[in-house]
């Protein structure tokens, strides 16, 4: 196969690079991920491979009622047990479906297994496979609430209980001895509260997340609020978020990630899969009857071209973390190759490492 030889041209400042997988499985022609078991096992294998390549993060999208990853904590815990350095996260968990108490226990356990590497992205979520799917999980918006309000209420409850403060009155005759005072949920993982991210689709929800001390995730989809290109709207969203963070007076520095579909064409496989990529412009559409959204373009080119294109991306320039969406149905070997090509030929030109 013809291989690519890079030329060094750009000095940028990308700090962390990880991958984001939706965990699709399908028995269609060409899919290397045929079953749910394939998806889970290969997700674990790809995270291990990405760590060996030097990637900074392994992130997973959560969708219910779909042939995708739907129950993240067993997977996150398994990856935590098999790896040592890579950040392990979600982008995002739909809080409309979550029991905040049970989620706090699962998150605490997975974080302790990983040694404090969990980076949990949570959000209101996106349109799902079924109508009002959270109702099947036993959740209903309160009177006057929307489903987005339900998600934010669950998020607030989750953020409160993972702080580790006692809130439950102990039984005077417990089965096992209790420490003094009110009891908290266990296991508690110190520091996890600072590693919760909010997936914001608008400037307003980014500011809401900043006020609550959550990090920010901005994906390849955002509400179209100005008609400008996605990367420009995201840059303004990130600026609004950081201003709100400063106004809230938080002591620590926040983290911000953006997601992109990026493929370096360095061999014949890459050119066969992505050499004719047609999504080289942002797309505009409606994610529901009332919400106009802008969907980010894909980047697929030889590395020198990618370096120039990504250097001109205003959102990447102001974020600290870049998440690369991967075509997981092409299998672990190809996706590891795709990640390695970015880390080897593109990322150093943008200042990574």
Short summary of the structure?
The chain is α/β, with parallel strands linked by helices and 353 residues long. The chain contains 10 helices and 12 strands.
Question: What does the model show?
Answer:
There is one protein chain. The protein has 353 residues and is of the alpha/beta class. The chain is 35% helix and 17% strand. It has 10 helices and 12 strands. It has helices at 36-53, 72-82, 100-114, 147-161, 203-211, 230-248, 268-274, 303-311, 314-318, 332-346; strands at residues 16-21, 57-60, 87-94, 118-123, 196-199, 215-218, 221-223, 256-264, 283-286, 292-295, 298-301, 321-325. The strands form 2 sheets. An 8-stranded parallel β-barrel has the order 1-2-3-4-5-6-8-12, surrounded by 7 helices. It has a 3-stranded antiparallel sheet with strand order 7-10-9, covered by helices on one side. α3 (100-114) links the parallel β3 and β4. The protein is globular.
Number of helices: 10
- For the largest beta sheet, what order do the strands appear in spatially? 1-2-3-4-5-6-8-12
| N-to-C series of helices and strands | EHEHEHEHEHEEHEHEEEHHEH
Helix/strand-derived category reads: alpha/beta
Mean pLDDT: 93
In total, how many beta strands?
A: 12
The share of residues in extended strands comes to 15-25%
Major beta sheet summary = 8 strands, parallel, barrel
Q: Quote the distance from N terminus to C terminus.
A: 28 Å
Contiguous runs where pLDDT drops below 50 for at least 5 residues: 1-12
- Based on CA inertia axes, which overall geometry fits? globular
What gyration radius follows from the Cα positions, in whole Å? Answer: 21 Å
Give helix % range.
25-40%
């Amino acid at each position: 196969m013809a291989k690519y030889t890079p030329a060094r041209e750009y000095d940028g400042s990308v700090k962390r690079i990880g991958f984001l997988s939706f965990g699709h499985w399908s028995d269609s022609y060409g899919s290397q991920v045929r079953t749910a078991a394939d998806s889970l096992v290969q997700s674990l294998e790809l995270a291990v491979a990405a760590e060996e390549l030097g990637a900074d993060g392994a992130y997973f999208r959560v969708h219910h009622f779909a042939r995708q990853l739907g129950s993240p904590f067993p997977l996150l815990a398994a990856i935590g047990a098999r790896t040592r350095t890579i950040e392990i996260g979600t982008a995002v968990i739909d809080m409309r479906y979550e029991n905040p108490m049970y989620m706090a226990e699962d998150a605490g356990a997975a974080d302790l297994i990983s040694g404090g590497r969990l980076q949990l992205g949570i959000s209101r979520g996106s349109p799902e496979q079924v109508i009002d799917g959270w109702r099947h999980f036993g959740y209903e918006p309160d009177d006057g609430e929307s489903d987005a309000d339900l998600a934010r209420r669950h998020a607030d409850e989750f953020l409160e209980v993972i702080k580790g403060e006692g809130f439950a009155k102990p039984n005077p005759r417990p089965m096992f001895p209790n420490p003094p005072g009110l009891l908290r949920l266990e296991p508690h993982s110190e520091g996890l509260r600072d590693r919760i991210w909010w997936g914001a689709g608008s400037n307003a929800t980014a500011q809401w997340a900043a006020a609550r001390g959550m990090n920010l995730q901005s994906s390849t989809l955002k509400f179209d609020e100005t008609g400008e290109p996605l990367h420009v709207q995201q840059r303004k969203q990130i600026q609004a978020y950081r201003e709100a963070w400063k106004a809230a007076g938080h002591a620590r520095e926040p983290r911000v990630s953006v997601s992109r579909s990026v493929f370096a064409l360095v061999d014949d496989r890459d050119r066969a899969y992505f050499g004719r990529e047609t999504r080289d412009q942002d797309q505009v559409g409606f994610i529901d009857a009332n919400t106009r959204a802008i969907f980010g373009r894909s980047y697929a080119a030889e590395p020198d071209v990618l370096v120039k294109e990504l250097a001109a991306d205003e959102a990447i320039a102001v974020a600290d973390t870049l998440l690369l969406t991967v075509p997981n149905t092409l299998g672990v070997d190809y996706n590891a190759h795709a990640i390695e090509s970015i880390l080897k030929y593109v990322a150093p030109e943008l200042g990574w490492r």
